[in-house]
Amino acid sequence: MTGLPWYATTYVPVPAAELVAQAVGKHRVVTVLGPGGAGKTRLVVEVMPRVGAGYERCIFVDVPAAPSVGDVANLVAESMGARVRQSDPLDAIESALGDSPTLLVLDSCELYLAACAELVHALVSRIRTLDVLCTSRQPLGLDGEAHIRLGPLQDHALTLFVDRALLADPTFDQGATDLIKRVCDATDGLPLAIELAAAQLGHMPMAHIANGVIGRVHLLEREASTGAGRHRSMRACVEWSLGLLTNDERRELQALAVFEGSFDTPAARLLLASDVPTAARVIARFVARSLVVPDGPHSNRFRLLDVVREVVTAEGRDFAGFDDLSARHLSWAVEVCRAAAPELEGAGLEATVRSLLQADADLTAAFHRAVDRGDLEHAEVMFGSLALHWITSGRFNQAQEWFEACRAIANGRPLGCRSNWTAALLAVYSGSGAEATELATLALAQAREVDDRSIEARSLDVLGFAALTSDPAAAEALLIDAAACADSAGDSWCHADAAQIAGYAALARGRPDLARAHLLRARPIAERLGHAQLLAWDRAGLALVDASSGHFRRAAAGLVEALRHADATGDPNITASVTAFQCRVGTQLDEAPAWIERADDLFHRCRRLGAGQGAAELVVAQVELFVAVGEPHRANDLWALSAGPLGHVAPVIHRRLTHAGAAAALTLGDPGEARARLKSAAGRSAPIDSLTETWLAVVALFAEDTAAARRHLRRATDDGALPTAQIELHNLAVTWAALIAADGDDVRAADVLDAAGGPLIGDATAPSMIARLLSSRLPHAPVPEHPVHADPRQALTIARSRGRRSSARFGWTSLTPTERKVAALAAQGLTNRAIAERLHSSAGTVKSHLEHIYAKTGTANRTELAADRDRLDPGHP
Predict the structure, then answer these.
(1) Contact between residue 731 and residue 698 where contact means Cβ atoms under 8 Å apart
(2) Which of 346, 496, 534, 836 has minimal Cβ neighbours within 10 Å of its Cβ?
(3) Which of 81, 116, 149 is the last residue of a domain?
(4) Residue where a domain stops, chosen among 123, 149, 175
C-alpha cells in the first residue's frame, strides 16, 4: 500500500465502513461523500487493509498536493512510479500498471473535481484491472459511480469524544454523559469537530467546553498542530469548501444561512428571491457539495451544518444585502404564523404543530428580530396566531416570553384583543385562573369595542374555563353564552370548545345529565372540524359521564380513545388530564398499581413545561393511587406538598385532593387530621357540597361519633343538595349503611346496601374509595357475578326513613316559614319561652316546632342547630 497517511489515534468504527468494504470491488468507481471533517479520509485509510487484500497494488493519492488542475494526472502517475517525462500520463500509468489488479485511492477530489472526473473516467475505460476509491465533498458525476455518504456520528460520537478526551485528560469523568451529548449534538456529529472539542480538556473544564461549542467559538477557532491545513480547524474545513464556490453561489448560500434551523424549498424560494424550481436546483447543488444536508432520512426539509452556517453568516453580515435578507426572513415567518392560525383550529392541527416545531428556531429568530426593531404589529401577529400551537406543543414558557416581549415593545399601551385572548388562554391552561380572568376581561372589552364577535366569544370561553374550578354554575352560564356568541360569529372551534367545557362544568356541579347534553351538542362540530384536541376532550368528557354513572369499563374504553387523540396532538395538558381520569377509573377497577409510574412521569413533564392544569389533575390522581395501593405515607407526603399551592389556583380540584388526603389520614388512623383537612377545603368553597358532607360522615364514623355522622349524612341528603351523579349517590348510600350498622341495625343496613348495589356500582367490580374505607364496617354483601343494576336513591329512601317523621319532605328546604324562624332563634341560644314571646305563641308550640325541625334536618339539639346556621336564610331573624 503506497502513500497511505498514518494516524496515531484509535479508530472508532462507523457503520459506513462496512458499506465501503462491500462496494469496493463490486463497483469500478466508489466515492465516499461528506462535509469537511466528516472522517472520509480516516475511514478509507482504516478500510484499506480489508479491501486491499483483493489487489496486488493499492495506491493513495492526496489530490490537493497537485500544484494545479493540470498536474492531477501527473501526480497520480508519479505516485504509481510511472515515468511520465514527455509522454501522456495516461499512457505512463497504463504501462506502469500492466495487468496487475490495482486499487487507486483519490483523496479530496473536490478541489479539482472536473480533472479528477475526467482522469478516473479515462483510467477505468482503458485499464480493466483498475478500480478507484475516491473521497470528495461532492460526487464526480460519472456513470456507474457508487456513492456512500457519511452522515453524522450517532452512538459512536460519544465513544469518539471519550477516547479523545482521555488523551487530553486521563482523569476525565466518562460519566458526564449529558454534557458529552450536548457537545456531540452541537457539532452535528462531525468527527473532526468532536476531536477538536475534546482536545481542549487539557486547559478547560467540560462544562465550559459544552457552552463554548454551542456558541461555536472554540470549535471554529482552535487549531490542530498536525494534519493537512484544511483539517486543522473547522473554520479551515468550511473555508476550504467556500473557496470552491463562485461569487453567485456564495450569495445563494448566504441567503440560505439566514435560516437558523431547517427549511423547505418554498421557504428557500423567498430568501433566494427565485421560483420554486430554481430554489430546488440551488439546494440540490449545495447538497451535492455537502454544505447543505437533508434534515433526516426521506425529509423534504434541509439545513446548513451549524459550523457552515456560522462561518457563512459571519461573512454575510458584511454583505450589503444582509438587511434585505433579514426583512424577507421576517416577512416569511409572519406569513407562516398567520397561515397556521386557521389550520390549528381544524383537521390540520397535528401536521401544523409538527411544521411549526420544525420551524421553531427560525420563527423565534424572526420574532426577536421584530422585537429588536420595535415592530409590535408583526410581533403581535406571530404571538396571537399561535395560541393553539403553544398549548398543544406545551411551550408555555416560550409563549410567556413572547407575550412579555410584546408588552415591552408596547411600553404601557394595551396589546390587541387577540394577543390578550391568547395570553388569557395560556394562563388558564397554565393553572393561573386569576391572570386568565384579568386578561380575558380586558380582551372581552376590547373585542366589544371593535365589534369582533369571534374574540368576544373566545374571551367568554376563557372566562368560563377560568371559573370552572371555583364556581361551576357561573362557569356553565358563561360558557353557554360563549357558545351562542361563537355560533353567531361562525367560529366553529370556539362553539365546540365552549359547549364541551360547559359539559365539564355541569359534571363539576354534579349534573352528568346536563353534561352529556352539552357534550353531545359539541360532538358533531368537533367531528366536522376533525380537530384532535376537541375530539379528545369529547371522548374524555363522555367517559367521565359514564364513570359518574358507575359504568367504569365503558368509561375506561372511552378514555383509551380520548388518549389516542390526545397523544396525536402532543398536548401535555390534555394528555395529563385524560391520564388522570384513567387513574381515577383504574382505581375503581383495582388497576391502580399499573398507573403510578405513568402518572409520575407525566406530572414531571407538565411541571417542566408549565402545563398547570394537567399537573393539578395528576397530583390528585397520584394521591388517590397511593391510597388505593396501600401507601398512605406517600399519599400523605404528596398531599402536604401540594394542598397549599393547588388550593389557590384550583379550588374544586383542591377539594378532590382534600378528599384523597382525608382518606390517607384515615388509613393512617388519624380521623382528627382527616376532619381538619375536609373543613379546610370546605372553607374555600362554601356551602359544603354533598360529597364533602359524605366524607365528613365517614370521618365521624372512624371517630365513633355516630351523631355527627348522622348530621353530615342528613345534610348530604338535603332536598336542595342531593347529588345527581350515580357514584356520589352510591357512596352516600354506602355511608348510610355503615352508620345504620354502627347503630346496631344490621338488617336495615343490609337492606340499604342491597338497594344501593352492595359495595359495587355500575358494570364492573368497582369499589369506590369510600366503600374501601368502610368495607370492614358494612354488613356482608355477596359480590355479584354480573353487572349490578341498583338504584341508590331507593337505598337513600330506606336509610332516611324515620318513624316519627310523617312528612315525605326532608331537609332544610322542607322547613315551613314558622319553623325557620324557630330554628334561627333556637340557633341563637334563646330558650323556648323566649322564642314563644318573640313569636307570640306558647312554649309548648315552640317545643313541638323544634321536634319537627330536629326530625327534618337530622339535628339532635340546639348545639347542632347552631352549627348549621348557614343552612338558614340570612334574612330570617
Answers:
(1) no
(2) 346
(3) 149
(4) 149
Cβ atoms within 10 A of the Cβ of 601, count?
A: 12
Q: Specify the DSSP element, H or E, that contains 33.
A: strand 29-33
In a domain, 123, yes or no: yes
Q: How far is CA 178 from CA 42, 183, 184, 210, 787, in A?
A: 27, 9, 10, 10, 53
167-200 tens-digit pLDDT: 777 878 777 778 878 777 777 777 777 777 777 7
Q: Do β-strands 146-149 and 29-33 pair in parallel, antiparallel, or remain unpaired?
A: parallel
| Whether residues 20 and 139 fall in one domain | yes
478 within a domain of the structure (yes/no): no
Quickly list DSSP for 718-759: -TTT---SHHHHHHHHHHHHHHHHHTT-HHHHHHHHHHHTTT
The C-alpha angle with vertex 623 and arms to 764 and 644, in degrees rounded to 5, equals 140
What one-character DSSP code corresponds to residue 145? -
Q: Is 207 in the same domain as 84? A: no
User: How many other CB atoms are there within 10 angstroms of residue 877's CB atom?
Assistant: 10
In the block, which residue shows the cell 364541551? 500
Q: What is the pLDDT of residues 458-509, one digit of tens each?
A: 999 999 999 987 788 899 999 999 999 999 999 999 999 999 999 999 988 8
φ, ψ at 811 (rounded to 5°): 105, 175
- Cα–Cα dist 554/180, whole Å: 48
Q: Establish if 384 belongs to a structural domain.
A: no
- Interval 536-587: pLDDT, tens: 999 999 999 999 888 899 999 999 999 999 988 888 889 999 999 999 999 8
- Report the run of H or E that residue 91 belongs to, with start and end: helix 89-97
- Domain range for residue 185? 155-236
Same domain, 136 and 177: no
CA neighbor of 632 nearest in space, from 601, 665, 656, 607: 665
**Same domain, residue pair 145 and 162:** no
Q: Residue 861 corresponds to which cell in the numbers above?
A: 339539639
Q: Which of 496, 499, 459 is nearest to 479 (CA)?
A: 499
Largest CA distance in the chain: 142
Q: What tens digit of pLDDT does each residue of 43-91 get?
A: 888 888 888 888 888 989 988 888 888 788 888 888 887 776 656 888 8
Contact present, 282 and 252 (Cβ < 8 Å): yes
Q: What is the CATH number of the domain that holds 109?
A: 3.40.50.300
- Rg of the chain in Å (alpha carbons): 38
The residue that leads in pLDDT, 29 or 314, is: 29
Q: Residue 185: is it exposed, middle or buried by C-beta count within 10 angstroms (0-12/13-18/19+)?
A: middle
User: Which residues lie closer than 8 Å to 317 by C-beta, 6 or more apart?
Assistant: none
Contacts 24+ apart (CB under 8 A), 205-214: 206/172, 206/173, 206/176, 206/179, 206/180, 207/179, 209/179, 209/183, 210/179, 210/182, 210/183, 210/186, 213/182, 213/183, 213/186, 213/187, 214/182, 214/186
Omega before residue 687 within 30° of 0, cis: yes
* Contact criterion met (CB below 8 Å) for 99 and 129: yes
Predicted TM-score (pTM) above 0.85: no
Regarding beta strands 292-294 and 301-304, do their DSSP bridges make them parallel or antiparallel, or are they unpaired? antiparallel
Calpha distance 588→391 (Å, rounded): 30
Residue 615 · residue 431 · CB < 8 Å: yes
**One domain for residues 136 and 191:** no
* Shared domain check, 279 and 206: no
Q: How far apart are CA 691 and CA 672, in angstroms?
A: 18
What is the CATH classification number for the domain harbouring 828? 1.10.10.10
Number of domains in the chain: 4
d(CA 619, CA 654): 10
pLDDT reported for residue 819: 84
DSSP helix/strand/coil, 784: coil
- Grid coordinates given for 782: 355477596
The rounded mean pLDDT for the chain is 85
